[in-house]
Amino acid sequence: MWHAYNMVQVGDYLRGTTIRKVTLESSTGSVSANKVRTMLNIEVEAVDFDSQACVLRVKGRNVSENQYVKLGAYHTLDLELNRKFTLGKHHWDSIALERLDYACDPTQHADLAAVVMQEGLAHVCLITSCMTLVRAKLETHIPRKRRGSCEQHTKGLNRFYDQILQAILRHVNFEVVKCVLIASPGFVKDQFSEYLFSQAIKQDLKVITENKSKFVLVHSSSGFKHSLKEVLADPTVTARLADTKAAGEVRALDDFYQMLQNDPDRAFYGIKPIEKAAELNAIETLMVSDELFRSNDIKKRKRYVKLVDLVRDNGGDVKIFSSLHVSGEQLGQLSGVAAILRYPMSDEMSDED
After folding, report:
1. Interval 286-338: pLDDT, tens
2. N or C terminus: which one in the chain shows less Cβ crowding within 10 Å?
3. What is the pTM (predicted TM-score) of this model?
4. CATH number of residue 39's parent domain
5. Three-state SS across 166-225?
C-alpha cells in the first residue's frame, strides 16, 4: 500500500470497485436508499494514506458515467490489501517504473523487528523496506531499589518485561522477520534477554525458542524511537542486515555527515548546488526523499526525476529514502536531497559555473 501511495499522483486515472449510496424514486413517489457495488473511473485530485490501518483514500471526479454515478461527480475510493485497481498515467517516469519493479520483487524485502528500551519505557517497532512502524509503546513505573530490599523493584521490572514479551508475541511474525534487535543503554537488554528466554522455556513458547538465533543485542543511547538510527548503524547489526534497504540508507547518511564534518566541499545538500554538481558528473552518491516525488507540482516532480536519471546515467549511486523511516525524516530536515561528491567542489565554484 505504501508503494501504491507513492505511485498514485494528482492527475492520474484510477479505476476500481466501490460501494455507493444510491437514492431511487419509485413511480408512486416513495424514495428508497440502497448501497450498490459499482466500478468507477476517477481522475485523482487528492491522495491520503493511513499507515496504521494500511488504507489508501483517493478522491476525485468520475470520468466515465454509469447508471449510478453521474459524470463529474466526486467520489472517494478506498484502496486496501487484495482489492484490485487499475492505475493510468499520462507519463510513467523512471521512478514510478522502478518502484513498480521493486514492489513486485519479493526477494527485495528483508524485514526486521526492533525493541528499543530503557527501564520503564520500550518501543516495539517493525522496520520494512519502506517505513518504521511503532507497533507498541510501553510505559511502566518501576519502583526504585531501597536499601535492604529490592523486591518491589524486581517485581516492577518483571511486570515491564512481561508486557514487552506479550507485545513481541502479538506483533512480530517470525515467518517474515529475519532479525529482532533488542537495544538499550546499559544492561537492560541483557536482563530482558535472560527473562525472555527463561519465560519461553517455562511457558513452552516455541515461537521464541525456535527463533532464538534471530535475536541480536545491541547498545542504544535511550529507549526512544530516534535511537533506531544509531542501532541500525551498529557494525554488528549491519553485518546481519547487509541486504536490507534500511541499513544501506543509514550507512549512506552517516557517510554524508562524516563528509560534511571532514571534507565539506564533497558534501552538498539543497537542489540547486546538487543540480550543478550532477551536470559536472561530480556526484558519487545521491540521496533523495520519496516525499519529493509525491509533490502535486508536476514541474517539481519532473525536476527530481531528471536529476535521478542524470546521476544514474553518469554512473552515480542513487538512494531513495522513505519519509517514514528515521533516516528519511533526517534527510527531510536537509531539504530532502543530499549528495556525496567524487571530488571537492566549493559552493562558489558551482554557482560560478
Report:
1. 999 988 988 878 788 889 999 999 999 999 999 988 887 888 888 999 899 99
2. C
3. 0.60
4. 2.30.30.870
5. HHHHHHCCCCCCCEEEEEECCCHHHHHHHHHHHHHHHCCCHHHHCCHHHEEEEECCCCCH
